[in-house]
Amino acid sequence: MAKLLEGKVAVITGAGRGIGREEAIAFALHGAKVVVNDPGVSYSGEGKETKVADEVVEEIRKLGGEAVANYDFVDDFEGARRIIQTAIDKFGKIDILVNNAGILRDKMIFNMTEEDWDKVISVHLKGTFNCTHHACVWWRNQAKAGKPVSGRIINTTSDAGLLGNIGQSNYGAAKAGIAAFTIIVAEEMAKYGVTVNAIAPVARTRLTTDATPQLAAIFESVANAPFDVLNPKSIAPLVVYLASDKSAGITGQVFRIVGNMIWLMGGWRSVSKRKKDKKEYWNPEELDSVVRAMISEAPPKESMMEIMQDVLKEAQS
Ligand SMILES: NC(=O)c1ccc[n+]([C@@H]2O[C@H](COP(=O)([O-])OP(=O)(O)OC[C@H]3O[C@@H](n4cnc5c(N)ncnc54)[C@H](O)[C@@H]3O)[C@@H](O)[C@H]2O)c1
For 274-283, how does the pLDDT look when each residue is reduced to its tens digit (9 = 90+)? Predict the structure, then answer.
C-alpha cells in the first residue's frame, strides 16, 4: 500500500469513536503521527472519559503507528490551543487538522432550550473555529519565517446543514456555518500554503443509530448486506487523500461521502432572476407572481430522504 501521509503530523478531533476513530487509524496506517483528541463525552456532550482516546492510541501503537492522546474540549478556546500545541510539543509540527468532533441535541425549534442551541453551535462551529485558528496562527508564522508549509484542514459538515433536516436547527445551522467557514478560510489561507475542504459523511455511528428509531432501523437494515455502505471506515480514504500532498490545489470544496459514493456539493447560488423593464423598485403587490414564477423554474431541491434512498438502493443492489 502506498503511504500517502509519511512524515506528516495530524490532529484529529473527536477521534475516539465513530468516523474520527477510523480516520485516526487510517492516517496512522498511511504513516502520519496522530494526535487523537477526544474527551470521551456522551452523545449529547456530557461527562468525560479519557479511555476513549487512550484506546485508539493503543490500537494505533499495536498497528506499529505513532499517536498521542489529548482530552481537551474543542469548544474551549484555550483547550483547542492545547490540542494543536500537543502536536507541536510531541511531534515538532502540525501538517493536518481534521475538525471532526461532534454531538447532537435534536429538538423541534419550539422545544429547543437555549442550552441545546448554545452547546451544539459551540462544539461544532466554535470548536471548528478554535482549532482552525490556532493551527492557522502556527502555519502563518511558519510561512512568514520562510519555512515551507503544506497545511491541510478537513472540516466535517453534514447534509443536515447543506440540505436541512427537521429537528436539527441547531446542528444544521452549525454545519451550514462550517461549510461557509470552509470556503472563506480556504481563500484566507491559500497564500500561506494551506488548503481547507469539508466532507459531509453518512455512516453508522452512535450519532445516527441513537438519533431516532426510524433512522436506526434504516442503518441497521443494511448492516448485514454483502457490501456495508454505511461502515464508518468508508469515510477515511477521502480524508486521507485530502490530507495528503496529492490533493495540492484542491481547496474550498465540500464533498458528500457515503460508502462507495462521493458527491461534489455546490453551495448557494442564484437559480433564477427577474429584472423590471423600467428603472423603478419593485412593489409588493406585483411580487407574488414574480416570486412564484422564479420558484417554479428553479431546479428541485435535494432532500435528505432522497440521499438515504440512494444509499439503501446501493446497499441492496
Ligand atoms: N455519522 C454520520 O452519519 C454523520 C453524518 C453527518 C455528519 N457527521 C459528523 O461527523 C463527525 C463525527 O461524528 P460520528 O458520527 O463519528 O459521532 P461519534 O459520536 O461516534 O464521535 C464523535 C466524537 O466526538 C467527541 N466529542 C464530542 N464533543 C467534543 C468536544 N467538545 N471536544 C472534542 N471531542 C468531542 C465525542 O466524544 C465522540 O467520541 C461529527 O462532526 C458529526 O456531526 C456524522
Answer: 999 999 999 9
Spatial CA neighbour of 8 closest among 255, 238, 242: 242
Element (H, E) at 87: helix 77-91
> Among 42, 122, 207, 265, which residue has the most ligand 1 atoms within 8 Å of its CB, making it the best to mutate?
207
Non-local CB neighbours of 18 within 8 Å, separated by 6+ positions: 203, 205, 206, 207, 232
Domains and CATH numbers, the chain: 9-265 (3.40.50.720), 284-316 (no CATH)
pTM of the model: 0.97
| pLDDT tens by residue, 129-178 | 999 999 999 999 999 999 999 999 999 999 999 999 999 999 999 999 99
Q: Whose CA is nearest to atom 11 of ligand 1?
A: 100
Mutate to test the pocket of ligand 1, among 74, 128, 205, 209 (most ligand atoms within 8 A of CB): 205
Nearest in space to 112 (alpha carbons), one of 47, 173, 168: 168
| Residue 71 appears among annotated catalytic residues | no
Q: Tell me the CA–centroid distance for residue 97 and ligand 1, in Å.
A: 15
Contact between 173 and 122 under an 8 Å Cβ cutoff? The reply is no
